[in-house]
UniProtKB/TrEMBL annotation, chains A, B:
Residues of the Enoyl reductase (ER) domain: 16-331
Residue ranges, annotated region (Disordered): 1-24
Family annotation (SMART domains): PKS_ER
Top-rank taxon, per record: Bacteria
Keywords: Oxidoreductase
Entry keyword Oxidoreductase: yes
The keyword Oxidoreductase belongs to this UniProt entry's keyword annotation: yes
InterPro entries (UniProt xref): ADH-like_C, ADH_N_2, ER, GroES-like_sf, MDR_fam, NAD(P)-bd_dom_sf
Protein name: NADP-dependent oxidoreductase
Upper lineage: Bacteria, Bacillati, Actinomycetota, Actinomycetes, Kitasatosporales
Length: 349, 349
């Protein structure tokens, strides 16, 4: 029976791109649940651009990860020991378990998931925070109307791919922006967007003139930088820009502001930031609709599951900033193999 | 009787700051009203930062002034000849009469004003577009609530000084940002703001920590640039940033975007552009409330009336970008003297 819990902790706050020396690989004994607690074996970790922000000091929408603390991460896993009345051994659960192999939990912020209804990594993507971010960001902040043009950056990514698919379901014309031919093909062929713009090989401004001839009514931005500036020049009157992320800027020590922001005035448009955690009391609504669309075959899930366990976390995170992932990036910790050899299964402690 | 109409026309589109060679000084005969028209002798011209934008080519919220065209300007004047049933000789009127001494009009977009109720320049400021911009921008876009903190840049200027006074009337805590000790004193002593920050001598970020300890709920921005960036770092949760102008950037060939725009995400805040012309069907509502507050002594008007006639327009416009004005900048064309010697008075044509 496994007794060691491998972890990745934050060793230093990075300046610019995180380096190996910003992480500390630690092994400690697997904890034992106290009364009211249970032990989760982490199976899959959600790898998110937002993680870069959590590594910084200073006020943000969530407290920073402290130096020496296990890196924060969303995850799915399996309960391997329990002294909690609501969670039994064998239950699959989703929660913020961190970059480690085992996590003790008192159940707060933890939800049960059903591995028969969807593959476990999907509970980190389409049916997890990525899907909910897309759902509430697009519907509540973007407020698209049928027939309007919705543009999404990071269109082949975890959130962007779902945003575009929901916008199609809502009757919009949808244009994705992504890097590289393969991603752009995926955006159109697998996710069903009306068009894709390859920012690596195309002039985004020119391509937007072609694909959004009447202007952009909703722009869902995951990337910031030059792409945000290009879309700002193409806004339709009354457009809504949803600021969900700025992956192009997270490792920059001198972030680039949108020089064309006065287009907000010219077009009487708005730019609004959103954080999915604010919608916690409506997660159930979001997941229900996402699951329904998925069951109807209208929402394609794509998870990019990378092996390697927690030791591979630092390099896996960097894949996001290099745009190397397709769909939701997930790190396998115990994964498929884990399900056969879960420790403590049937145990009584 | 005056027969010559002096005009200032746009000669070239400026790159950066407008220069003398961008203007053409023209004299042409004063026109005669056709049926359904009247002639206005321009008395006061409204000098506005937005004028700089109208000189640029390209799509904006209003069509550009064409090369060779009389420069667009809001103005008040007096009807000196009329073949229009709705406007009589001697009527005082407000409209977009342009940088010229006389303007023919068919009455569209022209409103009568009462020189007995307020000085004529006030109809360009508090009771004109400046007041309406402040009113609708603050109330409709800023949506301040009593007790909230409102920060205004360009606080000693035409729009900013009114924004702050309305915010005080609505029960807010109001902090103004202006350049120089004299303006800051005016902001507090004459306009009644709770505090003023002198961006020329103070660290704006530090001063905002002091004067907006609980964060900024509404930021009404007239200036852009570094001041916008400083305020973004101080936003309260759910803050509204009203983008009314960016006078610090209008002459820049490489405008500066707000590098701290991700504060919108951190604080779930929004940044929204506004153009007063969109509220045309509610101008009457706005003017009525502004006039009421003014009559009650709760709204101080300050007009900075500069003499010199239309020939002085180019240098007067530059005063705005040098921050040389206090309150509403107005260029006197016929003005006080004009009222005694208006041409065509009592005429019958």
């Amino acid at each position: 029976m496994t007794t060691t819990n491998r972890q990745v902790r934050l060793a230093a706050r990075p300046a610019g791109e995180p380096r190996d020396t910003d992480w500390q690989h630690v092994e400690e004994p697997v904890g034992e649940p106290a009364d009211g607690e249970f032990l989760v074996q982490v199976m899959y970790l959600s790898i998110d651009p937002a993680m870069r922000g959590w590594m910084n000091a200073g006020r943000s929408y969530i407290r920073p990860v402290e130096i020496g603390e296990v890196m924060r991460a969303g995850a799915v896993g399996r309960v391997t020991a329990s002294r909690h009345p609501g969670f039994a051994v064998g239950d699959h659960v989703s929660g913020t378990f961190g970059v480690q192999e085992f996590c003790l939990s008192d159940g707060r912020g933890v939800t049960k998931v059903d591995p028969a209804a969807a593959p476990l990594p999907t509970y980190l993507g389409t049916l997890g925070m990525s899907g909910l971010t897309a759902y509430f960001g697009l519907i509540d902040i973007g407020r698209p109307e049928p027939g309007q043009t919705v543009v999404v950056s990071g269109a082949a990514g975890a959130v962007g791919s779902i945003v575009g698919q929901i916008a199609k379901i809502l009757g919009c014309r949808v244009v994705g922006i992504a890097g590289g031919e393969r991603k752009c093909r995926m955006v159109v062929e697998e996710f069903g967007f009306d068009a894709a713009i390859d920012y690596q090989s195309e002039d985004v401004r020119k391509a937007l003139r072609e694909h959004a001839p009447d202007g952009v009514d909703v722009y869902f931005d995951n990337v910031g930088g030059d792409i945000l500036d290009a879309v700002l020049l193409r806004l339709a009157r009354g457009a809504r820009v949803v600021i969900c992320g700025a992956v192009s800027q997270y490792n920059s020590t001198r972030p680039q502001g949108p020089a064309n922001y006065m287009s907000l005035l010219v077009n009487r448009a708005s730019m609004t930031g959103m954080v999915v955690f604010d919608y916690a009391d409506r997660y159930a609504e979001g997941v229900a609709r996402l699951a329904e669309w998925r069951a109807e075959g209208r929402l394609t899930s794509l998870e990019d599951v990378v092996p390697g366990g927690v030791a591979a976390f630092p390099e896996t995170l960097m894949r996001l900033f290099r745009g190397a992932n397709h769909g939701k990036l997930v790190l396998e910790v115990a994964g498929g193999k884990g399900t056969g050899t879960v420790i403590g299964e049937g145990g009584s402690r």
